[in-house]
Amino acid sequence: MGIPLPGHLADRARAMAAGEIVAVPARDAATVVLLRDDPLEVYLLERAATMAFAAGVHVFPGGSVDPRDADHAVAWAGPPAAEWAEIFHVDERTARGLVCAAVRETFEESGVLLAGADDGTVVGDTTGDDWEADRLALVGGTLSLAGFLAGRGLVLRSDLLRPWAHWITPAVETRRFDTRFFVAALPPGQRTRDVGGEAAGVAWMRPADALAGAAAGQLGLMAPTLNTLTEIGAFERIDEVFAAERTIMTVLPAAVEVDGRMVLTVPGLDYRSAVRGGSGRSAGGDVTNDPVRGIR
If you average pLDDT over residues 173-191, what whole number do you get? Predict the structure, then answer.
């Protein structure tokens, strides 16, 4: 049992099995499940239908690690990179980059900043024009996270993040990401906002509602997002999520042939819920909101 692969990916999977092509390397990436209480909800972005990858699907904030994210100039408070390295089974430089990418991408894609003046404070409202200018500079790459924090006299708060999961995009894909998932609570006084760009819209949703929408074909979810929503949906409050014992296991979906069809097997996934949903298509007309795909 598994998720049927679309034709072009099925052909690619067979070519890989025959040794005709090899998998492309997976880039380090981070994604953050942003939470708020009463009731417990998650922040989701709907990727624009014009995006070449994962168009029209709902995702958490996240993206690739910028080489500058690992810069030791990034002011830091909370568990050090060495602790995150042990959790995610990586070297300290990679761990530093992942945590910094998680904070940077969350701000870029939601306006929420997990930073403060010191290890006991968090910034308040970040919706002003000056904050927006900094956010756009980060998105455009003209400002680094280190420069952004230094310019505002802030330190990254790694203690506001919790590790959650590790997913690697299937080898059959042509764009692959080695993604670590974090969870974080919306800081008091801060507000998310629709920041545009890659997102066609944003919404706070109860995990159960997002899953029901996917089952009804009303929104697209990729396998990592679907699985994470299922896990988060087992809790009622943020403190319960944070208190959950997590062992970070690597999930790498695999393409296999079953009864003449190429399917993707995802350990522990409820295939009955793994539906496409949404209507996103690339410019070439290929379905791009396939739930088997990894995080951007």
Answer: 95
pLDDT at 69: 97
Extract the tokens encoding 80. Answer: 């050090």
Q: How far apart are CA 69 and CA 203, in angstroms?
A: 27
For residues 10-26, one letter each, b for 16 or more C-beta atoms within 10 angstroms of the residue's C-beta and e for the rest, the string is: bebbbeeeeeeeeeeeb
pLDDT in tens, 38-56: 999 999 998 755 554 555 7
Residue 193 burial (CB count, 10 A):
14
Residue 22's domain spans which residues? 3-273
Q: What pTM value is reported for the model?
A: 0.88
Domain assignment present for residue 284? The answer is no
- Give CA–CA dist 21/115, Å, rounded: 44
Using the predicted structure, report yes or no on whether residue 177 has a pLDDT greater than 90: yes
Q: Please determine, for residue 186, whether its predicted confidence score (pLDDT) is greater than 90.
A: yes
Q: Are 243 and 162 in contact (CB under 8 A)?
A: no
Residue 65 located in a structural domain: yes
Number of domains in the chain: 1
What CA–CA distances, in Å, run from 275 to 149, 176, 182, 217, 285?
Answer: 40, 21, 24, 7, 19
What are the tokens at 143?
Answer: 């400002």
Q: Look up the CATH number of the domain holding residue 188.
A: 3.90.79.10
Is a pLDDT exceeding 80 seen at residue 267? no
Asked whether 32 and 60 are in contact (CB, 8 A), the reply is yes
Beta-sheet pairing, 176-185 with 26-36: parallel
Say if 30 falls within a structural domain: yes
Please give the Cα distance from 176 to 165 (Å, whole number): 17
Average pLDDT, the chain: 86
Spatial distance between the Cα atoms of 162 and 237, rounded to a whole number of angstroms: 15
Q: Is residue 280 part of a domain?
A: no
